[in-house]
Description:
The chain is an alpha+beta fold. About 40% of the residues lie in helices and about 15% in strands. The strands form two sheets. Strands 2-1-3 form a three-stranded mixed β-sheet. Strands 4-5 form a two-stranded antiparallel ribbon.
Amino acid sequence: xxxxxxxxxxxxxxxxxxxxxxxxxxxxxxxxxxxxxxxxxxxxxxxxxxxxxxxxxxxxxxxxxxxxxxxxxxxxxxxxxxxxxxxxxxxxxxxxxxxxxxxxxxxxxxxxxxxxxxxxxxxxxxxxxxxxxxxxxxxxxxxxxxxxxxxxxxxxxxxxxxxxxxxxxxxxxxxxxxxxxxxxxxxxxxxxxxxxxxxxxxxxxxxxxxxxxxxxxxxxxxxxxxxxxxxxx
Length: 233
């Protein structure tokens, strides 16, 4: 017999028939109930005075975050989609005196449709509002939260201001020569570095400091540079 909802009236009717002398098997056949149910209802009635068990006084935890507060959290992610969960937990504790774990907060965010996804970064240099908040720092965060079906976007600084490159010639005893340039080294800049800073400290082969070893960098593939070093001995 499959489980089904049995009304309180039917349970009371079964016990009434039983009290009037009906056999349990006849009651089960007429009402379409099981023998075990009849004895279960009899035990309940003798214990509690009713055939229906009263609802349990135990209730679940009260909701920590109200709907209004969750809307405030949604507004936070709308402004800064890359916020970490622990940052939201700290904000709730400081601003609203609510203590909640990151896992519980994550479940609440999923219930309102905020999912974790890869951030889509937008160059702040293209946005006048974001440019005013430029702080010359690169964000290390790659994930954010937004509503289902929407991208998590972040206005970020792509241009870092002035950039410098350093090139050095080293021996087993330390640095032989160094040069710092603004921007990046190209083939001509590296050629000048070898000519002006490195070769003056080197000697003809096979004396000490007579061998120049380069890696496979593209700017090192320069025939003029090869001719320069060979001409120096």
